[in-house]
């Protein structure tokens, strides 16, 4: 199995900017590759970047480009790193557009670069889910994995949970 990681931006990939003297965040290099290297994972993978945006700025045109990128990718196992604010909207958009592929969307509430980030848990769950899932679109956040339409974000806690 070979996994394609697709970066769209969001908190998981935020980094301290080199261009603004460290006073704001910018979307940096994909966190997925750093984590896979750190874990010494034995899974073959590659990375692509669809966009580098805060998820509140992702448009349907961006989603269509993401869907095309996934459809054209030779791998049937794809993890999309995404901002949490519109992760579920993007998952629903992709659901009818990825064919027989297994796609898991994940992200983080704190940047992967932070020591208390949830990125390692979320990405690890996404990689594990890909190995067991039937074709379709899934979400892996906060230790919860489910089909895109079986997961929601709590209005009270802002954490993802199964419906």
Summarize the structure.
This protein is of the alpha/beta class. It has one domain: L-asparaginase, N-terminal domain (Rossmann fold), CATH 3.40.50. The protein has helices spanning 31-39, 60-72, 87-94, 119-132, and strands spanning 2-7, 14-15, 26-27, 44-49, 77-81, 102-106, 136-141, 144-147, 151-153, 160-162.
Written account of the structure:
The protein is α/β, with parallel strands linked by helices. The protein has a single domain, classed as L-asparaginase, N-terminal domain (Rossmann fold, 3-Layer(aba) Sandwich). 27% of the residues lie in helices and 26% in strands. Helix 4 links the parallel strand 6 and strand 7 (136-141). The longest helix is centred in the last third of the chain and has 14 residues, at 119-132.
